[in-house]
Amino acid sequence: MLSAANATLPGCPRKCGNVTIPYPFGIGRRCSLGYKYIVVCDTEKNFSVPRISGRHILDLSKTQITVTDGRVASSCNFAEEGSGEDETWSNVDLTGQPYSVSSASNIFVVTGCHHYGLIEAQTTTGREVASCVALCTREEDLHNKMCSGIGCCEAPIPKGLKFWNISLEDIYYNTSVSSGNCSYAYILEKSTFNFQGLQGQDSGYLKSVPVVLDWFIPNERCQDAQKNSTTYACQQNTSCIDLGRALNVIGYRCKCLHGYQGNPYLSPGCIGLGLGLGSILLLLSGFWLFIIARRRRKRMQRAKFFKQNGGLLLQQKMWSKDGMIEKTRIFTADELEKATDGFNENRVLGQGGQGKVYKGMLSDGNVVAIKKSNIGNSNGLSQFINEVVILSEINHRNIVSLLGCCLETEVPLLVYEFIPNGVLSKYIHGPSEDFPITWEMRLQIAIDVAGALTYLHSASSKPVFHRDVKTSNILLDAKYRAKLSDFGTSRSVGVDQTHLTTRIQGTFGYLDPEYFRSNQFTDKSDVYGFGVVLVELLTGKRAVIPTESHNGKSLASYFLSAMENSNLYDILDAQVAKEGREEAILAVSNLAKRCLNIDGKQRPTMREAALELEVISQLHHAPVSAQKNQPEVTAETLTEINYSLSDSLLPPDTSYMEENWSFSSNWSTGSRIQHETHDGA
Asked: pLDDT at residue 2 above 50?
């Protein structure tokens, strides 16, 4: 039967390794009386190690804690006589902690030759000191195993030590005996001390020693503590013991009254021995019933959340495909809580309209991004299920992969691959001088996003409209390649169909004007959003430009006006103007202009946009002399190239380009850009 004195709060671990952790101590905040009594259970090489305030616990009893990291002061000679010494001092501060060094269970020891050891301490009664001297008068003294002043000395320590300093001083005793390599001074547990002589006492010989600490409820005497029933630690059938005289500290302990037993700190308190074995068994039975009921309640709650979060509907949708989509893993709530350190706010990567995203590490070491969805209503639930179903069918290198989901929590969770460099918007709207986004990187990002949207529109099992294409939904991986994310508002539709909505969804600045008028979202609506992204890459400006009226101005209209008035170069990002070739910049600008056409039918498809960007990339990398000798690539040429490919889009991991396309310096209609080009442009 478990010792009642070693009892813990219901549901809390009783042990860490082979050390029992009785209340008021506990593993975790919920299991302890307060943060000063929290024990951390570390796992080191398959062993569990309990620690309190960073100190390794060897034993924890009703009145004392034994820890291993008692500090050691040392003084070492490394060479012949006349060389310098390496000295260390030991400083320990337990101020504010609910324990002090036990004067009854520890001693102060100095080992070595010709050294004076000193403890300078501060207690509740003022400054205290303790000291002793270790001498060696003959060579035989080095082999002495008695701690009586020859090679070793010991002294009692003051009561109530909470702050102290240990120092060693060479007294240069006049003797022919070598002082040896090192001398040490330390406080340690009296029962473990066994002096074996000075042989081998060199540098590194002693780093830490076991020390016994007296623990208590600090900062109040019984008389004062009993006035506040909320904070008073002693429970029913207990007595309060002041420790001022016994330990020289301000604090108290609780003790069961005579004839009672149990843990005096744990509600409801101590129980009478006369209650007998039956009462104890009844108490234990009640405890186990409580645990069983809590587990059952937890299972029922998770089942409720699973149903509430659309788990049944999600299963139905996924089964309605060609069998269950096996790659989508169902995570447990415990797994994801552990991965995010209890959804610690320090793990937040970002927050948007669809939810908050945390960085987490799974038990297998994989780093993931975990999105806590904003549900709130049936529409939010529909978006969540929609995102899971769509992403579970998508496999493309430029689209963020969905690893799984969790429906056991009050708010459903989605688990994605972790993309380390975050959102594109922070790089182009808040550029860093240390790491600027180059023109070549911008062009590659545009190609990546165009490829992802082309796949969604043309090559996935069923066409998908993203519906929220913007720079904050584009992530950059370790190589700064783009990945499209956030499919909460996406919709899959039949070929040649549009999606009719009852309310406008999306982000201002990226919304298709036709969508505003007709409430019909088409693939060309995604093209419009992509056009805004192209303009952001070209100009470095936000989709909505702040104005004095605070209403904001659309970047799309600002860009189209600049194109119309031949002022394009005035609004370009400095990095783009410096590095980009004039022909390539104008080509991308004209593509963006066509993507932003007010008439959706006049916009290119994403497939056409992707092909044009590949051609522009070839232009950017081609030598100037080669460009001059190439025939002009027109819209008709692009169409021929487009149809020369297979009717279906190339697989996601294959380049869109299968031949070396050439490009004329006279790319498109519109005014030429008048500016000085850099070398090689």
From this structure: no
